[in-house]
């Protein structure tokens, strides 16, 4: 009986500890930054991106920056209009030539915006 109580107490302690850790921990958050989108666009234009990588970044909404969200939506629209995901498996490009041109314009626009100096806030 003593062995049973010992095993029960150890299992109960582990279970309560696990539940407590899960209750106190926060849900992990992923925050898409402009550099992530630039890297994805560069890899897409160089024919080095997978379909899964594209959808992981472009299909995830960006709530912390309205400008980045608009860039993400434009990229999503380019994929809908010019996407060729079946050609990636054969070594082809994810987008048609027109899609690559549009994506290059989006990338250049984002890169130019990042190069602008940030306005200083007055104290």
TrEMBL record:
It comes from the Bacteria. This is Uncharacterized protein. It comes from Chromohalobacter sarecensis.
């Amino acid at each position: 009986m003593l062995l049973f109580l010992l095993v029960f107490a150890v299992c109960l302690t582990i279970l309560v500890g696990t539940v407590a850790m899960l209750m106190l921990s926060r849900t992990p958050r992923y925050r898409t930054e402009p550099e992530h989108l630039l890297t994805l666009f560069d890899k897409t234009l160089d024919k080095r991106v997978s379909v899964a990588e594209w959808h992981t970044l472009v299909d995830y909404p960006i709530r912390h920056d309205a400008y980045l969200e608009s860039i993400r939506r434009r990229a999503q629209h380019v994929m809908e209009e010019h996407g060729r995901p079946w050609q990636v498996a054969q070594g082809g490009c994810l987008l048609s030539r027109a899609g690559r041109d549009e994506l290059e314009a989006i990338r250049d626009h984002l890169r130019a915006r990042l190069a602008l100096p940030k306005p200083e806030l007055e104290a």
